[in-house]
């Protein structure tokens, strides 16, 4: 493969970014470290290896991607889907890179993906030297996995990266909030289609991603150029009678949508939030229909947002297993209502709370509803009736 000359200025800038990122890591400034390492990644060419990497005057791209993955996963202890993608990207550039193989293997092992984890750990062991920092750990992990059974659980949000080959460079994922226009009267669209548009913050964020992608081999126009020609991608097709009784009037709605894919994705990758009026009581209700991946992403976004009072966590990791915390649901819905519609309600306002799991059968399009949601369900349905008058 031909090498590319990065250039003296770019090489110095890249090394400076990495030096500053190391300082931020030491000072526990996570987001600053991610931003700096992402800036370093942006200096590498879209394809090919640089002469500086070959001469070892700058770190390899795989090293920087792995550093980012280590931050997102807390050194492989936190089952983070962005980290999984980062380690996978590092292995695209160097399939034998030991740290990426080790940390990816660790995450996959913790999630029950034993067959894939074995491959990564074996690769880490084969390419490390006895006595180095990864050799014994990889060997111990291989011995531990010899007694484990492959559960085949998917990493929740790994699939949100469809069409986003380099979006790991942005702190947030390529998912954004889309809402109906204020003038759009949707009372009669309970079982109809509603056109959704990105918020200003979403447009800005997705344009950052699109610009980065365009500079790294995945050409994309700005969202403002892309949207008019692709409006059907962002048209929500409601089917509310399938999910709730016909005693509500739809008044507002929005969604978290994957850039490029729009709503043209599997049901388990959708996230739609509705504001309703219960006709009998003339009070507000809220309905969430969401797959696990976008639910996990939005949960993290709201818990980290300075504009939100929400500090819960719907999903957590305990002893390397994913746990679902139902107690956080009502607070999450309240935070969503504020984020989407500017509404506020408290637990005292809740008159009824219903949580169901949904299993999507893609072959015959049948839906199965369970009385409670668990992590084996493909989607969750949450309905909250409040006492707040419309």
From TrEMBL:
<dbReference type="InterPro" id="IPR011990">
    <property type="entry name" value="TPR-like_helical_dom_sf"/>
</dbReference>
<protein>
    <recommendedName>
        <fullName>Tetratricopeptide repeat protein</fullName>
    </recommendedName>
</protein>
């Amino acid at each position: 493969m031909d090498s590319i000359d990065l250039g003296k200025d770019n090489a110095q800038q890249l090394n400076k970014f990495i030096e500053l990122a190391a300082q931020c890591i030491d000072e526990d400034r996570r987001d600053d470290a991610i931003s700096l390492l992402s800036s370093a990644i942006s200096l590498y060419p879209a394809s090919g290896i640089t002469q500086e990497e070959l001469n070892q005057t700058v770190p390899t791209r795989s090293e920087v991607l792995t550093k980012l993955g280590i931050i997102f996963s807390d050194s492989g202890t936190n089952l983070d889907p962005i980290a999984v993608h980062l380690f996978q990207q590092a292995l695209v550039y160097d399939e034998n890179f030991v740290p990426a193989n080790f940390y990816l293997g660790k995450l996959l092992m913790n999630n029950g993906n034993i067959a894939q984890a074995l491959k990564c750990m074996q690769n880490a062991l084969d390419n490390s030297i006895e006595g180095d920092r990864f050799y014994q750990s990889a060997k111990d992990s291989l011995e531990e996995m010899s007694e484990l059974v492959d559960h085949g659980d998917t990493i929740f949000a790994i699939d949100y990266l469809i069409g986003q080959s380099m979006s790991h460079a942005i702190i947030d994922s390529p998912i954004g909030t889309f809402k109906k226009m204020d003038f759009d009267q949707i009372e009669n669209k309970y079982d109809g289609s509603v056109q959704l548009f990105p918020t200003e913050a979403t447009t800005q964020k997705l344009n950052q991603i699109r610009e980065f992608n365009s500079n790294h081999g995945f050409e994309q126009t700005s969202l403002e150029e892309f949207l008019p020609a692709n409006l059907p991608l962002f048209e929500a097709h409601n089917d509310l009678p399938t999910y709730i009784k016909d005693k509500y009037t739809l008044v507002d709605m929005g969604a978290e949508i994957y850039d490029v894919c729009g709503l043209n994705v599997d049901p388990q990758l959708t996230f739609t939030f509705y504001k309703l009026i219960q006709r009998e009581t003339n009070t507000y209700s809220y309905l969430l229909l969401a797959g696990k991946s976008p639910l996990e992403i939005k949960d993290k976004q709201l818990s980290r947002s300075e504009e939100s009072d929400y500090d819960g966590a719907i999903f957590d990791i305990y002893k390397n297993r994913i746990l679902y915390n139902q107690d956080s649901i009502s607070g999450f819905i309240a935070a969503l209502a504020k984020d989407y519609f500017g509404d506020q309600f408290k637990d005292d306002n809740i008159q009824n709370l219903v949580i169901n799991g949904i299993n999507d059968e893609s072959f015959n399009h049948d839906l199965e509803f369970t009385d409670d949601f668990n992590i084996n369900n493909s989607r969750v349905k949450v309905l909250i009736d409040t006492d707040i008058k419309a």
